[in-house]
């Protein structure tokens, strides 16, 4: 069976084709226009999805050598995300599924991220239960995955998401958007212990996160410096700020692992692309005797391959949706 996956929840218009659980092709059109505003402009995101969706779907079909008549189902992100952005993908998917007379499958974007570790489809998912650390631009959450579609929230950020901490920190440091990759490269050659930033909630017995105090600490640190000093110290500041975010992620993950006794971990979302996080997790997994998987780099950030794979598992479990499928900007994994 062949599934077309569609993703338009934020600033990437993406389409993918998956046959029998294996990826055949995927295309991502990233909306670079937001960079000059230092963040996503929702109205602009909707307009660009509207412009890009047909060419992106056509390109994914062409690249995989698939015709519309070969499709068995259409899987689409219906939340969480920006309402106007989600509406473009969902409306397109409904129209296509209706015209072809094939099932429509609504996928939670975060569930898509969770499946990204098992792309391009050759590897098996972790044995249940496992813990998933989802760290993206909008969410930082810890879930216990007990089975397909069975998610239990262990902890979440009480304020900003980890990706948001990277994005806002980068803006303060005069770096580009998105901030994660920008801070990662600015941190190269810097000393991670040069500036002593706080680790909010470190040692707290509940596996929640908080990043707003860290962001404020960066703001106050930078206020004391001249532009020249910031420039000269940028690598050290970026490395120290990045290390603080990573320490928080690993400390909270460790609490979740110890609390549940579950030692299989899947890390997902845009922040899972971070090279320093990946190497720190590798050494942590050795000392904690945990098994850690993360997505191949190209599937860490938003894409439709993960939506198609999640949709495939819905389809196999007999879960499809009717054409009243709503967009749900605040959709939760356990709803
Ligand atoms: O999952 P994603 O592509 O979109 C959302 O669902 O939000 O995540 C985007 C976030 C952004 O905040 C971006 O700065 C962050 O992921 N990110 C990174 C890296 N690449 C992307 N953060 C740290 N290091 C990276 N290499
Ligand atoms: Zn995402």
Describe the strand arrangement of the main beta sheet, using strand numbers.
3-2-1-4-5
Q: Return the structural class.
A: alpha/beta
CATH class of the largest domain, named Alpha Beta
The CATH topology label of the largest domain is Nucleotidyltransferase, domain 5
> SSE string, helix = H, strand = E?
EEEHEHEHEEEHHHHEHEH
The H-level CATH homologous superfamily of the largest domain, spelled out, is: ATPase, nucleotide binding domain
Low-confidence stretches: none
According to DSSP, the number of beta strands is: 10
Largest sheet: 5 strands, mixed
Mean pLDDT: 96
Overall outline? globular
The ligands bound in this entry are: 5'-O-[(R)-(carboxyoxy)(hydroxy)phosphoryl]adenosine, zinc ion
Structure description:
The protein is α/β, with parallel strands linked by helices and 335 residues long. The protein has two domains: 2-115 and 299-316, ATPase, nucleotide binding domain (Nucleotidyltransferase, domain 5, 2-Layer Sandwich), CATH 3.30.420; 127-295, ATPase, nucleotide binding domain (Nucleotidyltransferase, domain 5, 2-Layer Sandwich), CATH 3.30.420.40. The chain is built from nine helices and ten strands. Strands 3-2-1-4-5 form a five-stranded mixed β-sheet, with helices on both faces. A hairpin with a 4-residue loop joins β6 and β7. It is globular and about 60 Å long. Zinc ion binds at residues 109, 113, 136, 269-270, 302.
């Amino acid at each position: 069976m062949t599934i077309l996956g569609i993703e338009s929840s934020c600033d990437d218009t993406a389409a993918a084709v998956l046959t029998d659980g294996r990826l055949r092709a995927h295309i991502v059109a990233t909306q670079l226009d937001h960079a000059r505003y230092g963040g996503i402009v929702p109205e602009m995101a909707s307009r660009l999805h509207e412009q890009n969706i047909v060419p992106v779907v056509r390109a994914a079909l062409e690249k995989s050598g698939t015709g519309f008549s070969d499709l068995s189902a259409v899987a689409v992100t219906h939340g969480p995300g920006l309402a106007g952005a989600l509406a473009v993908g969902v409306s397109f998917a409904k129209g296509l599924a209706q015209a072809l007379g094939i099932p429509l499958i609504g996928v939670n974007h975060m569930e898509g991220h969770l499946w990204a570790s098992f792309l391009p489809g050759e590897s098996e998912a972790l044995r249940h239960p496992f813990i998933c650390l989802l760290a993206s631009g909008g969410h930082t959450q810890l879930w216990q995955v007990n089975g397909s579609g069975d998610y239990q929230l262990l902890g979440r950020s009480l304020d900003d998401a980890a990706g948001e901490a990277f994005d806002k920190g980068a803006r303060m440091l005069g770096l580009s958007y998105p901030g994660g990759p920008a801070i990662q490269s600015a941190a190269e050659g810097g000393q991670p212990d040069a500036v002593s930033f706080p680790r909010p909630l470190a040692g707290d017995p509940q596996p929640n996160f908080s990043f707003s105090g860290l962001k404020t600490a960066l703001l106050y640190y930078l206020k004391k410096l001249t532009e020249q000093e910031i420039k000269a110290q940028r690598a050290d500041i970026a490395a120290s700020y990045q290390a603080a975010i990573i320490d928080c992620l690993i400390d909270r993950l460790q609490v979740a692992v110890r609390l549940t006794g579950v030692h299989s971990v899947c890390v997902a979302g845009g922040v899972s692309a971070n090279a320093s996080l990946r190497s720190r997790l590798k050494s942590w997994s050795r000392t904690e005797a945990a098994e850690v998987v993360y997505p191949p780099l190209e599937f860490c950030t938003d894409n439709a391959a993960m939506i198609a794979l999640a949709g495939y598992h819905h389809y196999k479990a007999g879960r499809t949706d009717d054409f009243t499928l709503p967009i749900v900007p605040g959709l939760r994994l356990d709803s």
